[in-house]
Amino acid sequence: MSHAVTEAPDKPLVVLNQRTIWLIFGALMASMFLSSLDQTIVGTAMPTIVGELNGVEHQGWVITAYILAIAIAMPLYGKFGDLYGRRWPFLVAVALFVIASVGGGMAQSFESLVAWRAVQGLGGGGLMILSQAIIADIIPASDRGKYMGPMGALFGISAVAGPLLGGWLTDGPGWRWTFWINVPIGIAAWFIAYFALKLPSHRTTRPTDWGGILTMALGTTGIVLLTSWESLGNDGYDWSDPMLLGLLVGTAVVVGLFVFIENRVSEPLIPLRLFKNRTFTITTLIGLVLGMGMFSAMAMLPTFLQMSAGAGVTESGLLMLPMMAGVMLTSIVSGFAISKTGRYKMYPVVGLVITIAGMIWLTRLEGGMSLWLFGAMIFVLGAGMGLIMQTIVLAVQNSVDPRELGTATSSNNFFREIGAAVGTAAFTTVFTSRLSDNLEGVFGGLPEGAVPAGGSSGLTPAIVDQLPEPLRSGVVDAFADSLAPAFWYLVPLVAVGLVLALFLKEIKLSGEAGMVARGEAVMEGKETDILDR
């Protein structure tokens, strides 16, 4: 199949000088922070949110809906960005995110909150994928590590700033401000992007892969519904249930149709020939297993701190700072080291080893444990992740045709987000099913008047704190005993990623930015280069 060739830009060539690069980079950082922040900001607010909206058994959907929507949106933004240019899709993504934040802040039921989180994800997917693709457009791979390092650190900052900010807002003006706060930031980000992102647009007559879009969305949704079956209120995986069997068969058929369509259309949404690229295949699989482990861990740790370690909502956010420090340290150091040496294979290998060690350590979580020890645990986890995330994106972008930067980057991220959606759904299913059993043991023998209003589904940190002993200790232990063993399910997944990383082939980093390689831009001082081609 042919590469996704774009037409000539509608406007004159962009001259890339350091000032233009820093303006664009600043706009991307602001928008990426907005998106990545919302993957974690509800973490510390979650116990309060689901307690007020009576959704404890389904709490994973607040996060899963967002990640699922991101996964569906990513390939669309990647492909359309390659075909039409990235400026207007980026602005649409910011606008969607802001509108959904308003809706989330006004939600009056758990179902409406989940729906608005999904709309947020449709915007957030564009912010994340287009930011990574635009960086590849304006920065050569040989220098990109210096920029990808801070971008990786930004994910680390948001991973902890989100829970911290979410806790502070929940303790203060209320959990709804975890959504309202996005509105002024998002409006500012939109105007910054409007004036700073002076990127070329394209006209194209190439057909849109509507069949691929439809089957990708349905298949992704089916996979997540299957992994979330118990958290949807079903009593286990009863394979005689016609609804469960229908979902399984339907998902398999849709995925098969997607593969069939992508092998035959002229402009596939996710070109399956990319998997012939060894670097793309290995890094995509690494991202898949890392996504399953990373987001699952980050989603539930604040809940553990509040329910089992006795931390307040804001304090639980502060206690996630060691993870941020670990991600920032290794992401920035490795980014500069890659730019200096041109070598990158060792970083995901070492990072996955450290991540495995961190997850094994987290299986020792227990109620009332030393918070210094907890901080050391998550620092190790963060240090491992900081070595991996941006390095595998750089490896993918360096190994594909410059005309397919967006498609390859989005496809790689798509499978990571699938992993995150499936991992979070499966992890929370394991956690909540164990928690329900444990809490049933705690409340089972109590008279009706001694059980808190709303039962176990209405538990919030404040209610737990007011419970008399030994009931309070029973609930605390129930949360700890439900979460810690669940990390063992993630260790084999990350170990698979480590084995894959050993087979990653190191390719010399390109010295030409994507837009320059496609003839859409020139570097300042080299304006005559385009005439010599």
UniProtKB/TrEMBL annotation:
Its main location: membrane. InterPro entries: EmrB-like, MFS, MFS_dom, MFS_trans_sf, Tet-R_TetA/multi-R_MdtG-like. The chain crosses the membrane at residues 21-41, 61-78, 90-108, 114-135, 147-165, 177-197, 209-229, 244-261, 282-305, 317-339, 346-365, 371-396, 417-436, 486-504. Residues 24-509 form the Major facilitator superfamily (MFS) profile domain. The keyword Transcription does not apply. It is found in: Cell membrane. It is a multi-pass membrane protein. Keywords: Cell membrane, Membrane, Transmembrane, Transmembrane helix, Transport. NCBIfam families: efflux_EmrB. This is MDR family MFS transporter. It comes from Promicromonospora umidemergens.
